[in-house]
Amino acid sequence: MQAGLEGIGIAVPTTYVELSELAVARGVAPGKYVEGLGVTRMCVPLEDEDTVTLAARAARMALQSAGCPPEQVGMLVVGTETAVDHSKPVASYVQGLLGLPTNCRVFETKHACYGGTAALQMALDWVHAGSAKGRKALIVCSDIARYGIGTPGEPTQGAGAVAMLVSDQPRLVVFEKGKTGVYSKDVMDFWRPLYSKDALVDGHYSVQCYLDALAGAYRAYQEAAGEEPAGEGLYSDRFAALVYHVPYGKMSRKAHRHLRTLDGDTDPDASFDRLVGSSLVLPSQVGNIYTGSMYMALASLLSTSREDLTGRRVGLFSYGSGSCAEFFSGVVRPEAQARVRSLGLEGLLERRRKLSIPEYEEVMRARERIDEKPVRDAPGTDFRYQGTRDHKRVYAS
Ligand code: CAA
């Protein structure tokens, strides 16, 4: 039995900041953010957007684009590190907003940016084991990345959600059963204390932890996959594309250089545009979305690559600080690229409104109190966070 992605959906906030303008405001050369980090724009959520509304919008797109009625969903998992409650999962709100059935397993997973991959792997096992019985799993990665104004991490913020419909009828990507390599280690590279909305990070150490985890997971993948995928030359040339977790574009470049060096490539940057370039088009306009970053990069590859990827193998590397990482692979299905292109993801990003730097700073300050915001009507007809009443979050749908 095959298992993989039948549909995908993306949601991003309606506003963004231009990184070159942020650099000027911080007294930094724009080249540091745009070329040095590889980020052009980053999404900024307004007061009526949170992890729940982003997740619900992405999930609705995934269901609608696959033509899947809500009653076919038998499992809903939201991977996030931006929870809205210590107890009630984001997934329960999403279930309510989308009208998913009651005979559905609903919960949240957490392990920094790896939380969504943990959920995806669980869903694939659920399908392979036959427990799905023809029903589908909805896996949603939704996060708001925050480091705070004036911190080194500030230009690597972002917000957004990616939803994936997982089933035994994959029309986008079939994930290769058993071909995964895992690496985990207790490290203190990035964390988000319960008392803080902003993440704390040991920035340069986190880069090293990511690269160590990549080496470990890639080695474990090769052991698990054996001689497959077969081929001559460098191991990573057996993939048509490599999709890395993207906290910022330059991290993918560092990752690729590391992986090719492990392969014995003496010119490790030469293959970057060919194997990685298309996966960074959308992430460079969105910023870090934590759990969803690698899946946004996968959507970017399918949406923007000019190569015909049909039947070709893609390597995926997911990294969650703290840490847990996984390297796994999938094969692109016929028509997958046309299906993802028809979602109009680049147009979605174009329709956002730019915030000036003072406007962005005001939004950041307002979000510090967002969990206690009194209920008031939010404009628009889409899913909106309206505030809290009697300590309960209220959403417009
Ligand atoms: N023009 C072009 N490039 C320039 C430049 C200029 N004028 N000025 C500087 N640069 C380059 C630097 O050479 C450097 O490139 P290299 O890394 O290739 O050497 C790059 O810009 C960044 O410069 P610095 O290293 O000096 O930047 P920094 O110390 O201010 O911060 C950071 C960088 C550590 C990544 C920081 O943004 C940060 O802490 N980010 C959050 C943590 C993070 O994303 N970690 C990634 C791994 S962990 C993970 O992946 C999980 C997750 O999602 C968080």
Automatic annotation (TrEMBL):
Keywords (A to Z) from UniProt: Acyltransferase, Transferase
Chain positions covered by the region annotation Disordered: 371-397
Protein family: Belongs to the thiolase-like superfamily. HMG-CoA synthase family.
Domain Hydroxymethylglutaryl-coenzyme A synthase N-terminal: 3-167
Protein name per Swiss-Prot or TrEMBL: Hydroxymethylglutaryl-CoA synthase
InterPro entries (alphabetical): HMG_CoA_synt_C_dom (IPR013746), HMG_CoA_synth_N (IPR013528), HMG_CoA_synthase_prok (IPR011554), Thiolase-like (IPR016039)
NCBIfam families in alphabetical order: HMG-CoA-S_prok (TIGR01835)
EC class (word): transferase
The enzyme's E.C. designation: 2.3.3.10
Positions contributing to (3S)-3-hydroxy-3-methylglutaryl-CoA binding: 147, 254, 288
